[in-house]
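Researcher: Re-running this chain for the archive, since the previous output was lost when a drive failed. Same request as before.
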Amino acid sequence: MEDHQVWKFSQCFGERTPIGEVNDHDIISAVEFDKSGRFLATGDKGGRVVIFETEETKNGAHFESQAFSDYRFHYEFQSHEPEFDYLKSFEIDEKINRIRWCRPCNNSLFLLSTNDKTVKLWKVYEKEVKTVSQFNIARPDIVLMDVDEAATSLTPTLEFPKITLDGRVTSSRPRRVFAHAHAYHINSVAVNSDGETFISSDDLRINLWNLHRSDESYTIVDIKPDNMDDLIEVVTSAEFHPLHCNVFMYSSSRGTIRLGDMRARALCDSHSKSFEEPELQTQSRFSEITASISDIKFTADGRYIVSRDYLNLKIWDIHMESKPVQSISIHDLLKPKLEELYDNECIFDKFEVALSGDGNNIATGSYNNKLQIYDRYGKMNACIEASKMTNAPVGPLHPKVDNFMDFNRKIMHLSWHPKQPVVAVAGLNNLYIYTG
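Model: Regenerated structure tokens:
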């Protein structure tokens, strides 16, 4: 077996604040690299989106195989504001649930951000700042006169205003607002490989949108029963296939992953494939809760699916629906504490999963601000405590050694650089970046 890959602390953005003093609006709720890895975006509970950027090479080309370059602050804007639904009498939080990058165009960046009800397409771009000077202002030698009168003195010259370039600034504006299409909270947004469409999903429906049309959408999955008493599951996440624009998948609270093909029919209630592990004989009364899938991802080649539920990571081969090809236990130590986790509602925490560009490495979060990294072939397992201390524990994964769990410190949102061993991790109001 090869030696363990060494992961190192690289950067941290945020303030060192005691947990009890962290402003809830400053807590990061979404992290996402763009397709090139040059830009990194975060969203928080206050509805803000912050974009970071890496340095470029001297010739202007973005690095790919070169050494990792540090990120720096690029731009920040307010994406969502708190709203109130007067028809249903409830408040709509500004919290950013998901961020997804779209294809850049004309040196402008485009990204989707969503709160519980509304998806927005933002354009981030540079614009020139121009100043106007040398106006043709009134002078003492100019005399105002009536039409019938003759001027005793006239302006000697007519001066045109002069426009000068006074630098460039980064700006943003919403290009589209996709609203009024979800009765329940939006849990995920995914951009299609065709670059033209995206899906947004809530508990019972998945809608298909065109990025250029905000006035209509098409429901491609609807699992709402005629009688809500017959409801047995809800949709928890949805993703497009990275290569085939007609294929998408969605996960459920029962631990099931379903593949849909939009070529088969407009409403994809009858899935083309279903991935569900056989029920085990030894189940607790919390099994239905812990089986709920919180996040799903395709590998870059579309061959495998990685899912994360409360206790496990699972890797599925899309050609084998009966059982996962690999199952990794994340929270063995929590199994005896499920009663306590239910009482403090931590059992409903939704942990995300991130994949390396080659699909061989998987990252996910845990309590105690732990980032756990797994190699599909057993060559590298690492456990990192997200901290500003550069000497924080980084090394092989030994989950049974850590018996104390701080449920207030948890890594739930993260993203993996598409081309390099770089992982961005959100811990409360801090963004940590680690390199391998």
